[in-house]
Hints:
By secondary structure, the protein is an alpha+beta fold.
Amino acid sequence: MKDSKETKREKEKIHRVRKITPFARLVPYIMENRCGSQNFVYDKINMGKIDKYIQKKQEEGLKNFNLMYVIIAAYVRACSQRPAINRFIRGQKIYSREKVEVSLTIKKEMSIDSSDTVVKVLLDPSSTADEVYAQLNEKIENYRAQQNSSFDNLAKILNFIPGIFLRWTIRFLRFLDYLGLLPKAITRLSPFHASLFITSMGSLGIPPIVHHLYDFGTVPIFCSFGARQREFKVNPDGSVYKNSYVDITYNLDERICDGYYYASAMKYMRSIYKNPEVLDNPPETVVKDIR
């Protein structure tokens, strides 16, 4: 049985994190669910360097390249250097991913009657911004060209189950998920089994929401960013300039790593926003998580 579990984990490219402190090992038992373990972080992204970077990418032929791709690429790069943010809790135990899975909500058309769905992309921690764009843009374009996504089709199948039995079906799926026995066919499509869930409120022209985490699945971080804002700031010499920025929120599962580590990862992402050109090349090294 142990061998079969290890084989499954190898296929999923995950591993159990064992070299942690006794307190860190105990925390998932004290805070049993993800919603009861969430911390909220608010930040601002200065758009000065990013606007120039986006313009450069669009001129290179990445016609739909925008802030969302920069944020996802920055997160993927942070996972390559701070791998603990790519962990998750399952069955009260801590696991770490080798790949980065990103889920995002999209609409076919920007109208109130247009349906929305969730797409998911699997990325390597060494991915550049161009590689993130290529994989994610292909997923989005394929969805908009089709009637339904794979996740929509799965949801339709579950909707054929009568309500009272569907409730028990979902409970059974939760139980399998807790044990790590949920079929790969489901976790591959499920947006709730990912490294990061991201949503853009900017396209709606509103501030970012502070979104909850999901107790079903494995997503430890939910990110939301809003519409562009402008403010006037004062230089040290007394002159005034206009600054453009975007508000961004993070909802974090505090059980996967400590606050100091999270802060280090966020500072690393901030450094990328100030110099997004680093995303044009893969990282010199990819740091592996402890085992």
